[in-house]
Structures are given as C-alpha cells and as structure tokens.
Amino acid sequence: MNIGLFLRAIPLVRATVRLLLASAGGYALAVALAFLLARALPMSRAEATITASLAAILAMPAAAIWAYGAPRLWHAAAGILGLVALCGAIAALVGQPG
Fold first, then answer.
1. End-to-end CA distance of the chain
2. Residues in contact with 5: Cβ distance below 8 Å, sequence separation at least 6, in sequence order
3. What are the angstrom distances between the C-alpha of 80 and each of 10, 11, 57, 91?
C-alpha cells in the first residue's frame, strides 16, 4: 500500500464526512427539533406542528454551517449529533402531545 496516496486521500475523506454530517446530521437535527417542539409547545396540535416544522426548516442550514465552520471534525460531529440526542431525549421525556 502506498502511504503517500493514503495521506493525500485524507482531506477527501474529511470533506466527505463533513458533507454527510451536514446533510444526514442536519436532517436528523431538523426531525428531532420538529419532534421536540411539536410535543412541547403549549398550543393546539395543528399550530404546534406548523410552528415546529417552520423552526425545523432553520435547523438544517444551521447544522450545515456548523458542519463546515467547526474548527475540527469531531467538534462538528459532537455538536450536531449531541443536539440530535438531546432533542430526542427531551422529546421522549415530554410525553404524548395533548
């Protein structure tokens, strides 16, 4: 195995991981945020769903900006995946919508 070829491919791998983190992680964050807000907002179900969906639309580009703007790849991954886990956990604790 040529180690020079492998070392030259590392920036491509990092860029690919950031791309996947921005797209899949951003989508997961948008879904988790919409799920949390739809359950937690003190409104009727229809209003809470619409409000949660509109707020979730903003989460995906914010996650993409963070995925490419974070100084280290693990900072980006920890930030996005941590928020996904946090939103999911809080949404599970809130319970069923009324």
1. 60
2. none
3. 22, 21, 15, 17
**pLDDT of 29-81, one tens digit each?**
999 999 999 999 988 989 999 999 999 999 999 999 999 999 988 899 999 99
Q: Closest Cα to residue 67, out of 80, 83, 82?
A: 80
Whose tokens are 């280290």? That residue is 72
Whole-number pLDDT of residue 12: 84
**Tokens representing residue 53 in the block:** 């969906």
| Mean pLDDT of the chain, nearest integer | 88
Here the tokens at position 73 are 């790849």
Structure tokens at 33: 């945020």
